[in-house]
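Severity: low
Component: inverse-folding endpoint
Summary: output formatting inconsistent between runs
Steps to reproduce: submit the following structure tokens with default settings.
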């Protein structure tokens, strides 16, 4: 597990950029955080580092946004709208087993469809601030552990 903080949206984007430099095909990031925590802001930085020039928007209404023009394809998912339905018919396993990077917002609604090997990225607002965020990274398998080790060198530590 690794914890650190960012002071503003620009630093959150920079953290996303570091991730974008380190991710490889098959990496799955599960972003946990309240509305407005910075999940999409983080993803914008990751996409920029992958060389994706198309604007990154929250996939709340589309559930999955695909960005295929970068170093690796990016599949940005928002499972919030699946709160009262099943994710089984979305074919998520094809994305997770593919040659891209998957970023999943609101993973608690993904149920058994989510891979066991993932990097959980919890983003929390720091009390009494508008812009500061606390990140907690937890690897759950061999591929995510390798990613976490690559990230540790470039990320601030608490």
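Observed output (run 2 of 3):
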């Amino acid at each position: 597990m690794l914890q650190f903080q960012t002071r503003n949206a620009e630093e959150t984007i920079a953290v996303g950029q570091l991730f974008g430099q380190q991710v490889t095909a098959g990496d799955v990031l599960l972003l946990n955080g309240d509305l407005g925590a910075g999940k999409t802001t983080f993803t914008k930085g990751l996409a920029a580092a992958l060389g994706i020039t198309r604007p990154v928007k929250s996939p709340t209404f589309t559930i999955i946004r695909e960005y295929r023009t970068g170093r690796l394809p990016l599949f940005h998912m928002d499972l919030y709208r699946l709160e009262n339905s099943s994710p089984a018919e979305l074919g998520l396993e094809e994305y997770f087993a593919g040659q891209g990077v998957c970023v999943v917002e609101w993973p608690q609604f993904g149920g058994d469809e989510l891979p066991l090997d993932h990097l959980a990225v919890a983003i929390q607002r720091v009390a009494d601030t508008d812009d500061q965020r606390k990140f907690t990274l937890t690897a759950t398998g061999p591929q995510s552990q390798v990613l976490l080790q690559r990230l540790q060198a470039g990320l601030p530590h608490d």
